[in-house]
Amino acid sequence: MNVAVIGGHASSKKMYSMAQETGRLIAREGWVLICGGGPGIMEAACRGAKEAGGLTVGILPSFDGKEANDFLDVRLTTGLGYARNILVVRAADAIIAIAGEYGTLSEIAFAFNDPKPIVGIHTWKVRGLKQVNSAKEAFSYIKAVLKRRKK
Amino acid sequence: MNVAVIGGHASSKKMYSMAQETGRLIAREGWVLICGGGPGIMEAACRGAKEAGGLTVGILPSFDGKEANDFLDVRLTTGLGYARNILVVRAADAIIAIAGEYGTLSEIAFAFNDPKPIVGIHTWKVRGLKQVNSAKEAFSYIKAVLKRRKK
Amino acid sequence: MNVAVIGGHASSKKMYSMAQETGRLIAREGWVLICGGGPGIMEAACRGAKEAGGLTVGILPSFDGKEANDFLDVRLTTGLGYARNILVVRAADAIIAIAGEYGTLSEIAFAFNDPKPIVGIHTWKVRGLKQVNSAKEAFSYIKAVLKRRKK
Amino acid sequence: MNVAVIGGHASSKKMYSMAQETGRLIAREGWVLICGGGPGIMEAACRGAKEAGGLTVGILPSFDGKEANDFLDVRLTTGLGYARNILVVRAADAIIAIAGEYGTLSEIAFAFNDPKPIVGIHTWKVRGLKQVNSAKEAFSYIKAVLKRRKK
To answer: C107: distance to nearest CA of chain A, Å?
Structure first.
């Protein structure tokens, strides 16, 4: 299973910790962490996933990958700029959105379009988007959704 | 100048009229109308633009273009599905969002990312998005923004 | 019908004339000319199409369209760089390749992949690619193929 | 480093072995193997890489990944069809082309466009493309090129 963590380049300490814990939970479950590969929430999720021995993939906007964070096992440069956001969504079986700016909003919208299961933590209020307050709740929500799907 | 009208496949009669008038105003100004090429708001905007002798372009999700509305001068099939939304935004100098569902939300988000000038009519409430109540107001807003840019 | 003319940024005088005549023939038939929007072969085809009162569309690699030639009715910026080549192929009902470099080769290959009818004039020798020596022959070949398809 | 192996869905036994050995060499060097994720040459390269304990990434054309081979650590569905070919090239630091059909040709062309170092084994004859006769030679060529680049 691929689970994407989406969120902004910048993040508060609180949200950074939240993303890090989310990454840890994803890795412990044996899921591959997909993200946009950059700093902030993306870095935090990758850091957490690597702490738990997980596999991390960054789908990067640039041609050269200089924006890549230090916790990526796989760095995929695209040269597409923000158009790579759609690829993060399409590569994911489920998505956890943490805080975030307009890039994150575009990914939330795409998740509803495709559609892909998604849950948010302190992110954009979007009609139909389930929001929770902790990494654990987000993880449990996604786990339950993916379990139901398999049946 | 390219001005995109974005909005849903389905639309109320009121929003259809609004989009049609928006298309007319765009065409009268000599702007090219860009849209996703489908039914609903997209069709209405194209219909209005053609009434005013304008040029209409649809950037379509499918390979075969069967979803194309009847008022397109240029039908561009992409085979990208909803990923074509980013192309609508990138091809536009400015964007008018009318009502709409998640696809429209993804385009609004991309407009802030790129960034491109955008105004909404009864569409998603998104932080930073100027909303107005009529085609005329939307048109005037975009016209003023594009004028300022040129200087 | 959309017919794409593909070819390089640079071109000999002879190939420029060939592309210009191809553009004229496309426009006279009432087909929309699709191209990559740039200089060289693309410019020549657009110039020819405009001489014959046709409609021209350029799908441009950049965000700002500064590479656009002067004979485009519709300028679609993509910000995708050479990845826009696939969009030229996908938007076309048929393709005429004239001379060209590696970008043109990628489009020829994509035409066989999709697949789309294609003919070449003094372009890359590719297995299965029909090559002719004049704009008129290329035009006639494409016209016959499109006619057969409709039936 | 990411090294892509590109080639067709179908392959002869000889070419399958060649791709498998190429995958092994890539993995032993500690490089990540990037490919289109499907059967044939792609499967062979992934199989080889996994035999040598490497990391394998497939950038898949479909939405659901049903064409994925059994030797992928990371399965990235794109829903872009053959347009995903450009992503394989963009994600790679260097490319090894083995046999292959038109899809492979499009990737070779893109490699020259971007440009990315590339070498071929019994693949399309393309102006400027270095061709060799064995996995070992291809690997050595790419290794030398990447070494020179770093300096």
So the answer is: 19
Within 8 A of D59 by CB-CB distance, chain A residues are 76
pLDDT per residue as tens digits for the range A26-65: 999 999 999 999 999 999 999 999 999 999 999 999 999 9
CA distance D45 to D7: 10
Report how far apart, in Å, the C-alpha atoms of D84 and of each of B46, C83, D76 are. Answer: 31, 10, 10
Which of the four pLDDT bands, split at 50, 70 and 90, describes residue B150? confident
What CA–CA distances, in Å, run from C59 to B2, B33, B96, C138, D3?
13, 15, 22, 22, 30
Instruction: Tell me the C-alpha distance between C70 and D69, whole Å.
Output: 48
Please report residues of D whose CB lies closer than 8 A to that of C90.
83
DSSP states of A24-54: HHHHHTTPEEEE---STHHHHHHHHHHHTT-
**Shortest alpha-carbon distance between residue C79 and chain B (Å):** 7
Instruction: Name the 3-class secondary structure at D4.
Output: strand
Residues from B in contact with D at Cβ < 8 Å: 63, 79-81, 83
Say if the Cβ atoms of A82 and B112 lie within 8 Å. Answer: no
Task: For CA atoms A86, D79, C35, C146, give the dihedral sign.
Answer: negative
Which residues of chain C does B75 touch, with a Cβ-Cβ cutoff of 8 Å?
A: 2
Check CB contact under 8 Å for A74 and D87.
no
Smallest CA–CA separation between D79 and chain A, in Å? 7
Give the contacts of D32 (CB within 8 A, at least 6 positions apart).
Answer: A73, A74, D1, D2, D3, D54, D55, D56, D57
pTM of the model: 0.97
For C55, the closest of B74, B90, B114 (CB atoms) is B74
- D81/B83 Cβ within 8 A: no
**The pLDDT value given to residue D106:** 98
pLDDT confidence of C149, banded at 50, 70, 90? confident
The SS3 call for residue A146 is: helix
Interface contact D81-B79, CB threshold 8 A: yes
Say if the Cβ atoms of B76 and C55 lie within 8 Å.
no
Beta strands in A44-139 (DSSP E): 56-60, 74-77, 94-98, 118-121, 131-132
Chain D interface disruption, residue of C82, C84, C126, C129, most D CBs within 10 A = C82
Please state, as a whole number, how many other Cβ atoms lie within 10 Å of the Cβ of residue D66: 8
At D134 the pLDDT is 98
Residue with tokens 């009318």: B98
- The predicted structure's pLDDT at residue D150: 74
For residue C83, is pLDDT > 80? yes
